[in-house]
Amino acid sequence: MDALRAQLLAQPVLHADEIPVAMLAPSKKTTHRAYVWTYCSTLFSELKAMVYDFALGRVGERARAFLGDWHGKLVCDDYAGYKAGFGSGITEIGCLAHARRKFHDLHMANKSELAARALDYIGALYGVEREAKDLPDQDRQRLRHEKARPIADALHQWMIAQRQKVPDGSGTAKALDYSLKRWAALTRYLDDGAVPIDNNRVENQIRPWALGRNNWLFAGSLRSGQRAAAVMSLIQSAKLNGHDPYAYLKDVLTRLPTQKSCAIDELLPHNWAPATA
Questions:
Q1: What whole-number distance in Å separates Cα of residue 36 and Cα of residue 33?
Q2: 242: left (phi over 0), alpha (psi -120 to 50) or beta
Q3: Are residues 108 and 178 in the same domain?
Q4: Which residue, of 121, 155, 185, is where some domain finishes?
Q5: E strands, 49-145, where?
Q6: Per-residue confidence at 277, pLDDT binned at 50, 70, 90?
Q7: How far from the centroid of its chain's Cα atoms is residue 232's Cα?
Q8: What values do phi and psi take at 243, rounded to 5?
């Protein structure tokens, strides 16, 4: 897990998100809220890896402890726990899917024409992403500059104009304010072809924990939560690399006792090949 984390932190762009998980309180029959922090490489990265970090809380120190002196671009939501890192060399990348969700909810609630117009703009930006998905980073950045930048600029000016027409505190104002206050972070992806438009990739990696909470209900202790996070990190990373998790774990656990420490990277999911007879 240390080796996997080290290789993940060698990436210039990462996704991050967190989810609450119930944990049995020591010496008590009640549970309290712990958190699983999730970090993963992007869809555009050659490395396919992710790491779960099980922690007692959601305080920002946990993210800073995991990231250490990493100074890359972090795709995340607007959670305050990441903010300190943005003042010490980490570049914030906003999630356009979160911004879109504000307008989608507004449109579902009252069929807002303003929300529908915003969704059209954002849909056009995603249309460029579909076109650029399989391109090299430089070509993707060039296409974004040619096609997405004008759309984003028009959306920004339109939002500013609409915000002046709606009352403070309204649902429409809140949807507009979310995007306007985070505009710089939301549009940084336009300047770097290696940066994704949203944080959906890591949200998909959190899904096993969201499903698991309904089955196993809680972690029995901090240590058990950390062990589960380690095993699930390897399983999910194996899946990202197209491996059968059972075959991967069986082979790695068989070879691990005699594997040299200097060759531990050979057993990481993105490097792994089954042992030959």
A1: 10
A2: left
A3: yes
A4: 185
A5: 50-55, 73-75, 91-93
A6: low
A7: 16
A8: -95, 155
Predicted confidence (pLDDT) per residue in 225-242, tens digit: 899 999 999 999 999 999
Buried b vs exposed e over 4-42: b needs ≥16 C-beta within 10 Å?
Answer: bbebbbebebbbbbbbebbbbeeeeeeeeebbbbbbbbb
pLDDT tens digits along 106-153: 999 888 899 999 999 999 999 999 999 999 999 999 999 999 999 999
Task: Give the span between the Cα atoms of 38 and 219, in whole angstroms.
Answer: 17
Pairing mode, if any, of strands 31-40 and 13-24? antiparallel
| DSSP category for residue 52 | E
Residue 150 sits in which domain range? 96-185
The domain boundary, picked from 129, 160, 185, lies at 185
- 235-244 b/e (C-beta count within 10 Å ≥ 16 → b): bbbbbbbebe
Distance of CA 68 to the CA centre of its chain: 18
Amino acid (one-letter) located at 107:
H
In this structure, the answer to whether residues 66 and 112 fall within a common structural domain is no
Angle at CA 189, nearest 5°, toward 163 and 44? 145
| Per-chain mean pLDDT for the chain | 91
Give DSSP secondary structure letters for 166-201: S-TTSHHHHHHHHHHHTHHHHTGGGG-TTS-SSSHH
What pTM value is reported for the model? Answer: 0.91
Spatial contact of 73 and 93, defined as CB atoms under 8 Å apart:
yes
Residues 142 and 165 in one domain: yes
Those residues with Cβ within 8 angstroms of residue 82's Cβ, 6 or more apart along the chain or in another chain: 16, 60, 63, 74, 76, 90, 92
Q: Of all helices (H) and strands (E), which one includes residue 38? A: strand 31-40
Domain count for the chain: 2
